[in-house]
Amino acid sequence: MNRVKILIASGASAGHLYPALSFAQKLREKEAGADIAFVSSRRGGIAEEISAHGFRLFLISVLPFSFKSFKKFFLAFCRFIRSFFESFLIIEKFRPDVVVGFGSYVSFPVCLEAALFKKATVIHEQNVSLGLANKALGFFADKVAVSFRETRNFYDKAIVTGNPLRKSLTRAGKEDARSFFGLEDKFTILTLGGSQGSHRINTEFKNAVKRIEKREDFQFIHITGKSDYNDLKKDYSCITMRHCVFDFLEPMHLAYVLADLVVSRAGATTIAELVYFQKAALLIPYPYAGGHQLENAYALGKEAAAIVLREEELGCQGLSETIARLIHSPFQRQALERNIQKFAVPDAAGKLAELAISLARQ
Q1: Residue 163, by phi and psi: left (phi above 0), alpha (psi -120 to 50) or beta?
Q2: Radius of gyration for the chain, computed over Cα atoms and rounded to the nearest angstrom
Q3: Residue 72 belongs to what domain range?
Q4: 168 lies in some domain
Q5: CB-count exposure of residue 131 (10 Å: 0-12, 13-18, 19+)
Q6: Of 5, 64, 89, 320, which shows the fewest CB atoms inside 10 Å?
């Protein structure tokens, strides 16, 4: 039997790269000897991450389109044309059986070129609504793998696979988590703003803590991102409650295990992790970037699987009072934990790997 060859196109952001890597690792488990390679942008800076997992990496010159100036738009257009030819050369050299795109501007020229080559093509969408690249590619792809059941309405060729999670996300014991963080056995809030952090959430949560620390008994873990880390570390030094502050946390599973409430953005990867750990969540969706996070959050909110606060609702003690209410509402938190399980799609990486392998064997 011939060796299966699969080419994966992924952007450099955590929301694209982590699912792509998880998928690639599962492919390697299910199909011994599979030849797997990645394609990404030269500006992504993910070469070390890919090579650390033992995969080959091809680079293309594509840039995101910017409409802020004609110069930037023209440069992006020229790079797109160049990346289209680069994708042609990569596919001609690697000769994949299947090409799998994980969204973003990187996947567009690669998957479009693959479709023109009559290669089996799969695109994976992490959000409720398809991004621009995936919307266009959906007409050419053989299959559209989606993370939310609601997304099936977009294409007849859609298959619900779920969003692959990092292998490091395992369910540890609470005692191990408390020991790692040096925290007590009490109500714990985990706050995070996505892979890059969120200045707005960082600021509002800091203010909320100061408003309610005297009247509420809780502890917290705050993952700030790099930009605000030093300032928040200094600001929190004057509060008496137990807390941990990180710019980035590798063993995220320990933070999720310990959390009684998670305050976060509504990115696709974060939501997949919340579903996996069955956590009560207060979602503050990022309102820009095509509104993807708003739709993700509203999908959960509609099923009473999360509390949703828009950014404009954070002021005037909106965040602090919502947190205080949830601290004192164990039945509501339990309902959130139950309802979020409706969005579970077990073994997402395995489902996507089986889909790719089946197409490769056709």
Answers
A1: beta
A2: 21
A3: 5-163+346-361
A4: no
A5: buried
A6: 89
Read off the amino acid at residue 17: L
pLDDT tens per residue, range 267-300: 999 999 999 999 999 999 999 877 899 999 999 9
Assess whether 180 and 123 both reside in one domain: no
Looking at the structure, do residues 180 and 305 belong to the same domain, yes or no? Answer: yes
State how many domains the chain has. 2
Q: How far apart are alpha carbons 301 and 299 in whole angstroms?
A: 6
DSSP 156-215: TTEEE------TT-----HHHHHHHHT--SS-EEEEE--TT--HHHHHHHHHHHHHHTTT
Please state, in angstroms and rounded to a whole number, the distance separating the CA atoms of residues 268 and 271: 5
Contact 61, 44 (CB under 8 A): no
Give the pLDDT score at 156.
Answer: 82
Spatial separation of the C-alpha atoms in residues 305 and 110, rounded to whole Å: 36
Question: In the chain, which ranges are E strands?
Answer: 5-9, 35-41, 56-60, 98-101, 120-125, 143-146, 158-160, 188-192, 219-223, 243-246, 261-264, 281-283, 307-308
154 pLDDT higher than 70: no
Average pLDDT, the chain: 92
* Amino acid symbol at 356: A
pLDDT for 178 = 95
CA atoms lying within 13 Å on the CB side of residue 138: 22
Q: From CA 1, how far away is CA 196, in angstroms rounded?
A: 44
Cβ burial 193-214 (10 Å sphere, 16+ → b, else e): bbbebbeebbebbbbbbebbbe
List the CATH number of the domain containing 253.
Answer: 3.40.50.2000
Cα(115)–Cα(124) distance, rounded to whole angstroms?
15
3-state helix, strand, coil in the chain (%, to 5): 50, 15, 35
